[in-house]
Structures are given as structure tokens and as C-alpha cells.
Amino acid sequence: MNSTKKILIVEDEQDISRILMQYLTNAGYEIAYTGNGAGCLQLMATWHPDYIILDLMLPDMDGIELCRQIRECADTPILILSARGSDTDKVMGLGFGADDYMTKPFSLSELTARIGAHFRRYDSMANQPSARNNKDFLQFGYLTIDKKAYRVCLNGQEISLSAKEFELLYYLAANRNQVFTKSQLLDAVWGYESVGDDNTVTVYVRRIREKIEVDPSKPSLVKTVWGVGYKFSVT
Description:
Largest sheet: 5 strands, parallel
């Protein structure tokens, strides 16, 4: 494990935070901890974590609102931990920029596996050869996708995507016209087909459409293939 990876734990329950800190430290990560939203925003500015584990129930701020504020200034991956296990909370968390969601009580080994899968995916994309003829730079009319820079532009104007939004869009676009099931996309982009939630893919597709489609309700690029999954359509 790369010991330079820094994980910020935002959790006000001391027993949970202590267990998380010990377990992830033993896994080779550098850990910082805070029990409130204000501390999270301060550490974001001074410590610059590579990954955030965020509880929704904080004493000074709702976790979903904190997630939204983080997304306004950074694309750091966020995994939400919450005792609130409803689909509404999950959709809201993902809709405001979270990359993943786990419900308490949770498995420490599963949590670590999800974090490891994220870093493996990120490092794999970053370390691939950077030649434009190797699909690093994709262009579809008014849309360009630059894998090396993690940059997407519409009509020459850069648009803001989180890391997972970019990875999902890039994967679909690099395999244009190929249909993928939600499980296949979870495995390819999140790296955990067996424990993932299909709803995660649905939420991310909706977010991507809102950012790149002329009419998100009638998408021309990221299309639904009913009963199967999604594809990036190029005619």
C-alpha cells in the first residue's frame, strides 16, 4: 500500500473513529481525524487529503451539506458513512458529490477494499501511456475528454466533474457504442462488482447527463439501453 495516501475521517462517534484510524493506519494509510464539519473544511485547506470518509450525522453541520461544500472547492473522493440507510439519503449523498456510500454497521474489510479499489483505479488511469492515439484524448463534436488532465470541455469551456464522474464518462466514451450493465460499470469504475449498489451508477449517469447533454431528459450521448444498461452513443 502506498503510505503517502492520506485519508481524512470525519466522524463524531469516538469509538468508530478510533477503530477506523487504527484499522486504516495498519493498512498503510496516513490518517487525520475530525469530529465536525468545520474541522473537515480546515483540514481540506491545510492537509489536502486524498480520500474522505464522511459521517452524515455531525454536531455542527449536516453531512450532505458538508459534502456539497467540499465539492465546490475540491474533487477529493468522498465515501459517506451513515446510520441513515434509506435510498433517499443515499441518492442525496451521491447527488451532492459523494463517490460512495456505506450504511452503519459496516464491515471494516469491505470499507478498506473499496478504498483500495478506488486508489488502484485512479493509479491505473494515471499511469497508462499518455499518447493521444492511445485514447488519452477523445473528441465527439463539441465534447472533448482529456484523460491525462482529467479534463472535459464543452464547446471549448471546461466543465467541472468529480473524479468518479470523469472515470465513468471516460470509460463509456472510450468504449463508444458498447453497452454495459450497471454491474459491469461498478466493477470497471468502482472496482467492487460483488458489493456495489446499482443505484450508484444510476445517480452518476444522471449527474453526467446534466453536465454534458443539451437536453438531459433526451440524452444524445449517454443513452439508456432499456433492460440492459448504458452506452456512449456515437453515430
